[in-house]
Every structure is written in C-alpha cells, then in structure tokens.
C-alpha cells in the first residue's frame, strides 16, 4: 500500500536535511509520496511542494509580526492537508513555533508525528519538552546531550547523528589542516540581510585594525546562499575575497549559529559573534537560560571559543580576540584540539538514514 508523508521545513538548512530524509525513506519505501512545505532541495528529492518555505521564512520576533498573515495562511493550508490526506506520518523538521502547532493538530487527528531537529528547549522555553512528549511519537535529536534532556521530560527521543557530518552532505569538509600563525581568516557574518547590516561592518573594522599589525594575513568572506554579492560587498573592503565556496582558513570570525558548528567540526579556531536589534535581544535575554550562545561552547559545556555578544561585539574587542589567536600558539592549538574533540563526540551515525528507518517503523505501526 502506498504511504503518504506530510513534511514541513522552513529554511535552507532544514530544506537540505529534509531532502536527505526524503531520499533515504524512498530507498526503503520507493512508493512513498511526500507532500507539504519546503524548498528547492525537497522538491528535487521528489516532494510535492504545496507551499514554499519562502512564504514563511523569518528572523527574530519583530519580523514575525510583519509577516503574520502570510504565515497564518500557510499554517491553515497545512492543517487542511492533514485533514484531507490523513497522512501515514507527519515529519516536522525544525521550525518549532510553526511545526509544534501542526504536530499537535496532526496528533489530535490520529496522525503519527516524527519531529526531526528538536526545538532548543534546553536553552529556553523548557515547557516545550513536556509538550513534545504529548504531541510526538518520536523526537530525532542531533546533539548527544539532547537525548538525555528530552527523555527526562518523557519524550521518546533518540540521537540520530548530526546531518552536517553525514557523508555526501557537502556541508563540512574533513578536519582542515590549519596553520599557525594564521595566514587566512574567514569572515562569516550570517545568511540574512539584517545580519549583514548588524555584524559585517564590525567585522570589517576589526579586520582593518588587525591588518595594521599583520598586513600579510589574507581575508575572505563566505557568501551565504541567497545573498547578493554586491549587497555584501558594500559592507566590506576591496581586498576581502567574497565567494560562495569554502576555501581553507586558519581562523574564523563567525556569527553564532550553524556556521560556528561548521568551523568547530572542521577544527578551525573561531570567535563567535552575535548582534541583533535591541528589541530582539532584550526579549531573548528574558527567555534564554544558558551560559553560552556558540554551539561549540554549548556542546562542550564550557568556554572553548570567545563569544562577543550585542554591546560586547565591538571592532576593538573582536580585533583583540583575533590578535590573541595570531600571537599565542598555545591558545590556538589548545582551541583546535578542543574543537576536534567536539567532532568526535558527535559520532558517525548517518542522520538521514536513522530518521528514515524510524519513519518507516512508525508508518508500519512499530
């Protein structure tokens, strides 16, 4: 009998990870049909995209308010799909504010729910853990420490590996062969226009300060998918190589998020940066209950890379942190060793395959 899977993902990395799951499920159940909300990668994998993730792509509390009616339209449409299709499984990929509501609705109609990439309830809104225990049949987590946290709240959680380290993902190279003192520094200011405006000017000014003492260092900037090169180049210098591809780097200054983990598992020492609007920052401060914002530090449970946040992210502070790595070999090598330990801690499970196996088990009633 043909199996129907409703699936929902709302931004670029989730689109990639969800597409890998679609392909892995179809390797096990070739006749499985996927329908729902996603992006170009999921469409390429064979999903019938009723809704595009571009319709709900947002950043921060204030942007939600400006796009609420479009988000509600997609949400109501997805609820209608659940009612009409009665899928064998709903796979929710990240996007917690949207997907947890959909999961609750699906569960109320007797549809099985597998949630992939857990909401960061260990950081803020811990009540979500108890909610997930009620509205999901399985929670596939991508960090080892998450499994114990969610299980303690009654969730059927399982560590499936991190999709970034999946063979063939194309996201992260093998551990880089870095050099000290650093000859190449990579700037990674984020993937959204708002992040570029907030963070890149500070990175650029820090680069100028560092270059006064170390003029031989080469600088590059990783252009995130979807960003216009000309727009990004407005905020940096002509001698910075701006390109989409990844070149080897010896040191990185990185906006907190997925990119900080990417550098970590590549063994590249880094400084984690974050700045947002005052309103978003104050709201986050009220809710976040963890000591660190950088994934390397969160996973390690201690501070192994510097973090410069909001008012603390100044050109002078960033230049000082960079100079510390450039002039202190012991600091550089100890940081690199700690980052490679994180890579080992994440293990070798193939996330898409583990999620696919679980999905098939749920569809077959196991």
How would you describe this protein?
The chain is α/β, with parallel strands linked by helices and 366 residues long. The chain folds into two domains: 4-161 and 349-363, Glycogen Phosphorylase B (Rossmann fold, 3-Layer(aba) Sandwich), CATH 3.40.50; 184-346, Glycogen Phosphorylase B (Rossmann fold, 3-Layer(aba) Sandwich), CATH 3.40.50. 47% of the residues lie in helices and 16% in strands. The chain has 15 helices and 13 strands. The protein has helices spanning 12-28, 40-44, 60-66, 68-85, 96-108, 127-135, 144-151, 193-213, 229-233, 258-265, 278-287, 295-300, 315-327, 329-346, 351-363, and strands at residues 4-8, 33-38, 48-52, 89-93, 113-116, 138-141, 157-159, 184-188, 218-222, 241-243, 251-255, 270-274, 307-309. The strands form two sheets. Strands 3-2-1-4-5-6-7 form a seven-stranded parallel sheet, with helices on both faces. It has a six-stranded parallel sheet with strand order 10-9-8-11-12-13, sandwiched between helices. β8 (184-188), α8 (193-213) and β9 form a beta-alpha-beta unit. α8 (193-213) crosses α13 (315-327). The mean pLDDT is 90.
Q: What keyword list fits this structure?
A:
366 residues; alpha/beta; Rossmann fold; 7-stranded parallel sheet; 6-stranded parallel sheet
In short:
The chain is an alpha/beta fold and about 375 residues long. The protein has helices spanning about 10-30, 40-45, 60-65, 70-85, 95-110, 125-135, 145-150, 195-215, 230-235, 260-265, 280-285, 295-300, 315-325, 330-345, 350-365, and strands spanning about 5-10, 35-40, 50, 90-95, 115, 140, 155-160, 185-190, 220, 240-245, 250-255, 270-275, 305-310.
């Amino acid at each position: 009998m043909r199996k129907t899977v409703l699936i929902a993902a709302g931004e670029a990395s989730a689109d990639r990870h969800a597409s890998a799951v679609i392909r892995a499920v179809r390797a096990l159940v070739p006749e499985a049909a996927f329908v729902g909300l996603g992006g170009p990668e999921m469409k390429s994998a064979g999903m019938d995209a009723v809704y595009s993730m571009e319709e709900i792509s947002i950043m921060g509390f204030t942007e939600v308010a400006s796009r609420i009616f479009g988000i509600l339209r997609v949400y109501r449409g997805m609820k209608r799909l659940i009612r009409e299709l009665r899928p064998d499984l709903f796979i929710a990929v990240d996007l917690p504010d949207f997907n947890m509501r959909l999961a609750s609705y699906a569960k109320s109609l007797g549809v099985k729910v597998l949630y992939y990439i857990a909401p960061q309830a260990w950081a803020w809104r811990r009540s979500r853990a108890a909610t997930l225990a009620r509205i999901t049949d399985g929670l596939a987590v991508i960090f080892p420490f998450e499994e114990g946290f969610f299980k303690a709240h009654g969730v059927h959680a399982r560590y499936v590996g991190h999709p970034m380290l999946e063979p063939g993902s194309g996201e992260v190279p093998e551990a880089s062969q870095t050099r000290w003192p650093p000859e190449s520094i990579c700037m990674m200011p984020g993937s959204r226009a708002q992040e570029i405006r907030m963070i890149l000017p500070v990175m650029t000014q820090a680069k100028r300060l560092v270059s006064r003492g170390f003029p031989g260092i080469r600088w590059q900037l990783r252009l995130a998918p979807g960003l216009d090169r000309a727009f990004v180049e407005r905020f940096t210098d002509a001698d910075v190589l701006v390109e989409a591809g990844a070149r080897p780097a010896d040191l990185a200054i990185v906006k907190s998020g997925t990119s900080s983990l990417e550098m970590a598992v590549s063994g590249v020492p880094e400084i984690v940066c974050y700045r947002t609007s005052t309103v978003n920052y104050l709201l986050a401060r009220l809710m976040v209950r963890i000591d660190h914002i950088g994934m390397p530090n969160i996973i390690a449970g201690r501070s192994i890379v510097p973090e410069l946040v909001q008012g603390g992210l100044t050109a002078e502070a960033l230049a000082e942190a960079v100079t510390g790595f450039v002039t202190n070999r012991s600091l550089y090598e100890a940081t690199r060793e700690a980052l490679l330990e994180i890579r080992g801690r994440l293990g070798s499970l193939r996330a898409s395959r583990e999620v696919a196996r679980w999905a098939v088990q749920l569809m077959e009633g196991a």
